[in-house]
Amino acid sequence: MAANATFDFDLLARLTDAPGPAGYEDRVRDVVRDELPAVDAVRTDAMGNVVATVRGSADPDYEVLVAAHMDEIGLIVSDVDDDGFLSVEALGGWNPDALRGQPVTVHTRAGDYDGVVGITAAHTAADEAPADWTLDDAHVFTGLDPEEANERFGVGDVVTFDSDLRELGECVTGSSLDDRAGVYVLLEAARRADPDVTVHYAATVQEEVGLRGATALGVDVDPDLVVALDGTLEQSYPGIDPSNVITKLGEGVGIKRKDASVIATPGVAERFESVAENRDIGFQREVSWNIGTDTGGLQTAGGARPVGALSIPVRYHHSAVETANANDIEAAVDLLTAFLDAEDGTLW
């Protein structure tokens, strides 16, 4: 991979290979806790958010919360029919077409099982193929005979893409880069930063189903400043109107100005830009209209507070082939680290 020499592919692969649909982030949480550097305190709250705290060396009373969500989109089993096929409901926002013809993994208390979501054969008569394919048409087949399938699987089991992280030139591709790439940035910044103020590094849960973990965490921690890390839309590929391109692969970390859930505090965004310019870190301004992030949940939870966000451009969002540029990911690490090291407790 011809990418930033500090990029740790193996760490990102550990994070993306751990299944963690919304509400079922346990295995990702185990990786996060295992990969955290030495900190002053680590705790897991009742929802499953992990918070690692580094006390400030100069101004410990000023507190910054840095958050990235552990969960990915997934599915939850709603029925097992007499033929052993699993019906599913969404955990998070899905384009149903992303499921067609995909290998998946079914996660049960007894273990994991391979499965596939089928696709109508090209030879099928047009009137037999669904014109508008929806999740109601998605049925997981595991290869087990119907009786065994009904014994092993049940309502409430969860399903994720079966997709390993791979290298594509300077890029990486696989499922759950939204937002395991953000969790990677959080962990790497925790290793590298030496802040004067107190920093809470939080790996949150249930972002994909309504920013739920972050909203609860904002009350529990009550920080003076919030920085969220997440993927953002990258649509610079054929078939997309150029006016709808929000960010581009390889052009740096996104500094959020607005999304559907939040308007970033202008002073925070401007400070990010100033730090990036002074450190020669590539960045691009992000204004999006159709995504939400933990930033929105944290801005008002427990009272108003200033917020900022860094975004990693991710192409083919919410699919088995989410794609990000390793240099953009490392730019996010560099900018967050420099920002935290420069934070002096100035109130916004």
Distinctive features:
Aminopeptidase; 348 residues; alpha+beta; 6-stranded antiparallel beta barrel; globular; Elongation Factor Tu (Ef-tu), domain 3
Do you know the CATH topology of the largest domain?
A: Aminopeptidase
Largest sheet: 9 strands, mixed
Second-tier CATH architecture of the largest domain: 3-Layer(aba) Sandwich
Number of helices: 8
Report mean pLDDT, rounded to a whole number.
92
Q: Which CATH class of the largest domain is shown?
A: Alpha Beta
Count structural domains: 2
Number of β-strand runs: 18
Spell the H/E element sequence.
HHEEEEEEEEHEEEHEHEEEHEHEEH
Helicity, as a percent range:
25-40%
How far apart the termini lie comes to 40 Å
Radius of gyration: 21 Å
- Large-scale geometry: globular
Structural class by SSE content: alpha+beta
User: What is the beta-strand fraction?
Assistant: 25-35%
CATH homologous superfamily identity of the largest domain: Zn peptidases
Name the poorly predicted regions. none
Pfam families: Peptidase_M42
Binding site for Zn(2+) 1: 69, 178, 230
Keywords: Aminopeptidase, Hydrolase, Metal-binding, Protease
Active site: 207 (proton acceptor)
